[in-house]
Amino acid sequence: MIDLHTHTNISDGTDTPAQLINKALASGINVLALTDHDSIAGWNEATLHLRPGLDLVLGAEISCQTEDGMSVHMLGLLFDSAHQELQEVLAQTRENRHGRMEKIIGRMNSAGIEISMEEVLLQLSEGATLGRPHLADAMVAKGLAKSRDEIFEKWLHNSSPYYVAHYSPTPERAIALIKAAGGVAVIAHPMASLRGRTVSVESFASYVAAGMDGIEVSHRDHTMDQKILLTKIAEDLGVLRTGSSDYHGNGKLNELGENTTEADQWAALEAKATARRVVRAS
Question: Could you tell me how far CA 79 lies from the centroid of its own chain?
């Protein structure tokens, strides 16, 4: 099984990179991508704990924003971690998240929802990328709801009055940086409507022109009709199709390997990187 989108506690997951590797092996996955939000800090630990039977694809899920303020996530896989400009953009995005979180909390406090930055930071692992899931976890810990999903549905979705945008590159710039770093770019869950506004069919042409290599078609947050539409878009534009779990560990229903990528699609995608960067146990 090939799962090309997962998270650890380096961003908003709950498993350490080592735990993720162990769970992937136990789940029968043979190709796993580690794609924490705007961070590669988990790469070393995951690599150190790799064992025979699992190929590790190192990457990141890059937060992007269109010119009109819509959130888009771009999976960068197999890129060179030494690419300075890409790392600078990721660092700037991470740093901006703290100011954004303070603004979200301020809006919630003004509406009578009592939560503090200190409570949110208690949910954050050392070195992790701060995000709304950590706020959701703090609210669950405080008894305001039973799950992250309930918190997002009620208070933290992109159309919520508490939502605050943050610095991030445009999708086209993110794609260009991934490609300049020798990697491959795949748009993540582009029609996940529960997350807010979704990418228009017309937008895909611009992303492909920027160098995008694939579309994440099979995802828990896509309906069957959306999967069919995305498959047609991928075929029409000549890009590859992926499927993945978007696994986060505890707090989200997503299970490792619940959606996977076809072997031929992965082989073609991996071949588009400028070097063979898949990590295998020695």
Answer: 15
CA distance 219 to 5: 10
Q: Look at the chain and report how many structural domains it folds into.
A: 1
Poorest-confidence range of 2-6, 56-60, 68-72, 168-172? 68-72
Report whether 259 contacts 219 (CB < 8 A): yes
Domain membership of residue 241 (yes or no) is no
pLDDT, tens only, 193-228: 766 678 888 999 999 999 999 999 999 999 999 999
Domain CATH code at residue 146: 1.10.150.650
CB 10 within 8 A of CB 17: yes
Task: Give the tens place of pLDDT for each residue, 119-153.
Answer: 999 988 766 778 898 999 999 999 999 998 899 99
- In the chain, DSSP finds a helix count (H) and a strand count (E) of 10, 7
Query: Rounded to 5 degrees, what angle do the CA atoms 139, 169, 126 make?
Result: 40
Check whether 67 has a pLDDT greater than 90. no
Question: Residue 111: exposed, middle, or buried by beta-carbon count in 10 A (0-12, 13-18, 19+)?
Answer: exposed
Is 226 among the domain residues?
no
Closest CA to 187 of 21, 16, 35, 49: 35
How wide is the angle at C-alpha 232 spanned by C-alphas 227 and 237, nearest 5°? 125
Question: Would residue 54 count as lying in a domain?
Answer: no
pTM: 0.83
What pLDDT, on a 0 to 100 scale, did the predictor assign at position 165?
76
Given a contact cutoff of 8 angstroms between Cβ atoms, the answer to whether 24 and 247 are in contact is no
Domain housing 134: 98-156
Residue 131 lies in a domain: yes
φ/ψ of 123, rounded to 5, equals -90, -5
CB count within 10 Å of CB 227 equals: 17
How many C-beta atoms lie closer than 10 Å to residue 236's C-beta? 12
The confidence score (pLDDT) of residue 26 equals: 96
